[in-house]
Design brief:
By secondary structure, the chain is an alpha/beta fold. The chain folds into three domains: 238 residues, TIM Barrel, CATH 3.20.20; 84 residues, M1 Pyruvate Kinase, Domain 3, CATH 2.40.33.10; 126 residues, Pyruvate kinase, C-terminal domain (Pyruvate Kinase, Chain: A, domain 1, 3-Layer(aba) Sandwich), CATH 3.40.1380.20. The chain has 15 helices and 23 strands. It has an eight-stranded parallel β-barrel with strand order 1-2-3-13-14-15-16-17, surrounded by eight helices. Helix 1 packs across helix 2, helix 1 runs parallel beside helix 11 and helix 2 runs parallel beside helix 3. The longest helix is centred in the last third of the chain and has 21 residues. The chain is elongated, with a radius of gyration of 24 Å.
Amino acid sequence: MPRRTKIVATLGPATDTPDRMEAVLRAGVDVARVNFSHGSADDHLARVKRFRDAAARVGKPAAVLADLPGPKLRVLLSAPRDLAPGDTVTFSLSAEPGHAGDLTLTEPEVLADVRIRQRMLLDDGRLQLEATAIDAGRLTARVLVGGTLKPNKGLNLPDTPLTIPAVTPRDREALAVAARAGVDWVAASFVRGPEAAGEVRAACAAVGLAVPVLAKIERPEAVGRAAAIVAAFDAVMVARGDLGVELPLERVPTVQKMLIAEARAAGKPVVTATDMLDSMRENPRPTRAEASDVANAIFDGTDAVMLSGETAVGKYPVEAVGCMHRIAVETESHLRDSGTRAAAGGYAGLDGGIDGALSLAACGLADEVGAAAIVTPTISGRTARLVARHRPWARVVAVAPADAVVRGLALVWGVAAVRLAPAAAGADRVAAAVTDAFRAGAVAEGERVVVLAGHPIEGGPLFPTLRVVRVGPGGAPGEP
């Protein structure tokens, strides 16, 4: 059974060679993540080009996701520094240390939001501090849990509502590079509310980038406004790394389930990320807990699962992708054999109107008539996303008129996207979509397929249409 859950892999030194790029694509990568928190513009441009070239050789319409740095606070140190419980630590509120020994941050203005007795967590919470005083351009904190602080480690402020803009100067620099690279998705880090969607889209437009934007859910404020954020953005990511520091760890699994359900109800892609197979940075096999983690995200209904350091800097990047692929196939096989769908539930009519109801009907019809595929001619990809949220076992084949839409759908559960050939005005888009799907190898002669089209006639009005056809010789649709 073909895998439905998509795999996102982070590019980095471990995947930089053309052979390695091609290997991870063949192993199952659908989307490449470029992490703009690390590396230079030249690094990113070169990696995207190598990935595009490798995808062309493999013949796979894989997407590229630009992950913006966001207001990620990192401590600027030239050498490791030991912090013992009870020690006093001072932070400069500006880019330059006011006194010897002051620590400086990548975004020092954020410290103005901190209040006394609020927690300051360093290195993913391994070191814990408490703010004790703010005066004369400095913040003083007391070490509660000590250890060695290494250069460039992150700072989290789980008790502090942040007032910094959604798009930082570093984000704007990253977007300029992303536009040059021609990425397919943009991920906004540390989103705090739905208003960030407009800011990110405006920043994209300023550099000539018109792509869907994804919200990374990493802050407590974002969890509390999840429904509004899902509605405002084109997709969301359950970014469990910072989320697990900003929230009590025991809350992360239930937040993950909630976010996946919210996204599916809206027909928006959702990615589950961070530490999924983390031990494979150093080992050729994951732990049993990690395998279960990937499977449970699929049981929850996630569209995609993501690899970070495993493929960026790990010793076994190809093996990590292959392992994730096998876990996904096994989990989906269990769901299909048991007659269930991932976290199935009441999505009919939600955030989709007539199209939402028709997408549910298409899935039910495919089950009833034993259709091999649901073919959706689509301009933006929306119809395919609405079908995919119901997690049908029939293949979802999106036939789109633009390469950018085809690649963008690589993030959506179960969708195989192919190009729709240009058609004359007044042409039957239903027939054209079936023929183009056949030519791309997405459907085969003799298969019965369900076709769902919003605009059945090229250039015509919106008349949602649901048909059952059988693929005939040369891909021509015939009587079912």
